Amino acid sequence: MKLTAIALVAMVAIVMQLSPTMACDEKDLLPCLLPIINPPQPPTAGCCQTLRDQKPCMCYFTTKSWLQYTLKSPKGHKLFADCNVPFPTC
């Protein structure tokens, strides 16, 4: 019984760690597009927090997503720098 409970807790912990990467949704980054499109516009705190929260998804966003060219652009790199979030190395 104790072993089953430990296994269940371990499995839930693994699923919780994997779930952010499995739920990568480009729509979450929409608030971050304005500073890229309109560079004098600084990123909002919410945008910067989204970049941090979506860190497990960034390799997907910068390689396979429709956002890849936008995020890889010089303005995209500036967005990461302005938010003090390292640009992903994939």
UniProtKB/TrEMBL annotation:
UniProt keyword terms in alphabetical order: Lipid-binding, Signal, Transport
Annotated Pfam families: LTP_2
InterPro entries given in the database record: Bifun_inhib/LTP/seed_sf (IPR036312), Bifunc_inhib/LTP/seed_store (IPR016140), nsLTP2 (IPR033872)
Residues making up the signal peptide according to the UniProt record: 1-23
GO molecular function (one): lipid binding
GO terms (BP aspect): lipid transport
Domain Bifunctional inhibitor/plant lipid transfer protein/seed storage helical intervals: 7-86
Protein name, as recorded: Bifunctional inhibitor/plant lipid transfer protein/seed storage helical domain-containing protein
